Amino acid sequence: REFKRAIELDQNSAAAHFRYGQLYLAPNGFLNEAIAEINRGLELEPLDVNMGATSAWYYSLAGQSDKALEIAKKSYDLDPNHPVGRNMLSQVYIHRGMYPEALAIIDAAQKLDSQSQWDLQNLGITYAKMGRQNDAKDVIGRLRDMSRTQYVMSCYVAMIYAALGERDKAFDELELAYAAHDWRLTFVKVEQFMKPLRDDPRYPALLKRMNLPE
């Protein structure tokens, strides 16, 4: 209601369209509607890397892989150092099975910020999907070490475990994420990196606890 009211008050608010798509429509599974709202925001602010990269992510989640790659590359080229732009491009590469390309982006990102939890998540998942299980677990170890001095979102660790096929450990992390109100957990319904967990009865049970449509 509040998002709709914000848009009603200012139809030309790029932020209102973007956040309505990003924070309400997409997490609830309305991906096409989310893409439409974010694209409206991009019409108003076409050089916004955050919006463009997020749009690419949702195209990827909606199964429109070619469109996702096109937009992700465009957003990345606007500013290769933008954390959201580089992260979304690496995720699109991962979803397409383009692991060397994903690693190249992540490696460049690590040189800029070796503490980026988002990039470490992508690194661990990429290693897991490449069959480099020990390397993936080393990334989990890095996140564990970081958690001694800063807050680490358990969702990131859960997604690496999901890629490794270690479901019990993944759900243990999701329980921690639920207790801590991890922001990333809001996307559990649509997140492709959670796909290995979707046929487990604990998955719809988690969606129900979060009041998300199953």
* Structure classification: mainly alpha
Uncertain residue segments = none
**What is the succession of H and E elements?**
HHHHHHHHHHHH
- Mean of pLDDT: 95
Global morphology = globular
Walk me through the structure.
This protein has helices spanning 2-9, 14-25, 31-44, 49-61, 65-78, 83-95, 99-112, 117-129, 133-146, 154-164, 167-180, 202-209. 44% of the residues are buried. It is globular and about 50 Å long. It has 12 helices and no strands. Helix 3 packs antiparallel against helix 4 (49-61) and helix 8 packs parallel to helix 10. The chain is mainly α. The chain starts with a helix and ends in a 5-residue tail after the last helix. The longest helix is centred in the first third of the chain and has 14 residues, at 31-44.
Q: What layout of secondary structure does this protein have?
A:
Blueprint: H1 2-9, H2 14-25, H3 31-44, H4 49-61, H5 65-78, H6 83-95, H7 99-112, H8 117-129, H9 133-146, H10 154-164, H11 167-180, H12 202-209
Helix pairs in contact: 1-2, 2-3, 3-4, 4-5, 4-6, 5-6, 6-7, 6-8, 7-8, 8-9, 8-10, 9-10, 10-11
Search tags:
mainly alpha, 214 residues
Compose a concise summary of this entry.
69% of the residues lie in helices and 0% in strands. It is mainly α.
